[in-house]
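Side project, low priority. Logging it here so it doesn't get lost.
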Amino acid sequence: LARFAVDEHNKKENSLLQFGKVVKAKQQVVAGTVYYITVEATDGGVKKLYEAKVWVKPWMD
C-alpha cells in the first residue's frame, strides 16, 4: 500500500518520488479500511517523510 501511495502521488503531482520504507502504519476499520502510513521517500536525492492515507474499499475491486 505504501508503494501504491507513492505511485499515486507521482501520477497526480507529476513527481518522481522514490519509495524508501514504511516508518509507521496504522489502520482504522470503517466502511472498508483506512490505512495511515508514514513513508520515507527520496525526492531529488533527499530523504523525506510523507504521510499517506489509503482507503481500501473491497466491494469496489
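Brief comment: The longest strand covers residues 18-30.
Revisit when time allows.
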